[in-house]
């Protein structure tokens, strides 16, 4: 086994810890998040430090590294829409990872169609098989050496939206084979779902 203490990594380069985390905690779901500034500029950005926290209330967590537009917008308006990634929208999602000035809208710059949401004022991206409209539940700034290096956002889901193709209404079930989620690995690498198998949980 190769071992690296956090102190050792930080002495060499703090970025090394990120490389180990992003390369080990895989695959990760991708939250493609739209937010809106107080001036009405719609921002879209992908985040892969993303997961479920609770079902009652329905909470998800997104860690946003740095002080990005998404952070500023969420803190100002307390609203967002989380979109899930499939083969149909992965290229558009990747475009929105570009660093644009805050006054430029990714959805306008890259011609990404949106439509009004039901429970928040932030628009939803049309080409997403699953969307979670959400409001900010709690903001936890993560500090290191006196600086905020990451922002942990707990978001409460206010509306769940599913395309007919990925949702079985009779069984109230998301169909993973139809959904075909795209996951984040490390660097420029992504993954598809792959083979599925079942294991019965022990009694």
Low-confidence stretches: none
Number of helices, where a helix is a run of at least 4 consecutive DSSP H or I residues = 6
Shape summary: globular
Radius of gyration: 18 Å
Indicate the multimeric state: single chain
Name the structural class. alpha+beta
Mean pLDDT: 94
Strand order in the sheet with the most strands? 3-2-6-9-10-5-4
Strand residues, percent: 35-45%
User: Termini, distance in Å?
Assistant: 35 Å
Number of strands: 14
- SSE ordering: HHEEEEEHEHHEEEEEEHEE
User: In which range does the helix fraction lie?
Assistant: 10-25%
How would you explain this protein's 3D organization?
The chain has a seven-stranded antiparallel sheet with strand order 3-2-6-9-10-5-4. Strands 1-13-14 form a three-stranded antiparallel sheet, with no helix packed on it. It is built from six helices and 14 strands. Helix content is 20%, strand content 37%. The protein starts with 5 loop residues before the first helix and ends in a 12-residue tail after the last strand. The mean pLDDT is 94. Strand 7 (114-115) and strand 8 (124-125) form a beta hairpin. The chain is α+β, with helices and mostly antiparallel strands and 203 residues long.
What are its keywords?
seven-stranded antiparallel β-sheet; three-stranded antiparallel β-sheet; 6 helices; 37% strand
């Amino acid at each position: 086994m190769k071992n690296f203490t956090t102190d050792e990594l930080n002495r060499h380069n703090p970025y090394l810890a990120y490389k180990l985390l992003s390369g080990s905690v895989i695959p990760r779901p991708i939250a493609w998040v739209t937010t809106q500034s107080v001036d009405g500029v719609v921002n879209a950005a992908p985040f892969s430090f993303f997961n479920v926290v609770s079902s009652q209330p329905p909470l998800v967590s997104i860690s946003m590294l740095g002080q990005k537009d998404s952070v500023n917008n969420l803190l100002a308006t307390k609203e967002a829409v989380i979109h899930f990634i499939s083969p149909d929208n992965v290229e558009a999602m990747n475009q929105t990872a570009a660093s644009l000035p805050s006054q430029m809208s990714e959805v306008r710059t890259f011609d990404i169609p949106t439509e009004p949401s039901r429970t928040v004022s932030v628009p939803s991206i049309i080409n997403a098989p699953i969307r979670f409209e959400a409001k900010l539940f709690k903001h936890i700034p993560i500090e290191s050496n006196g600086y905020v290096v990451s922002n942990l956002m707990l978001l409460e889901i206010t509306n769940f939206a599913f395309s007919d193709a990925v949702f079985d209404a009779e069984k109230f079930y998301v169909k993973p084979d139809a959904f075909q989620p795209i996951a984040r690995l490390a660097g420029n690498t992504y993954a598809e779902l792959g083979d599925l198998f079942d294991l019965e949980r022990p009694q």
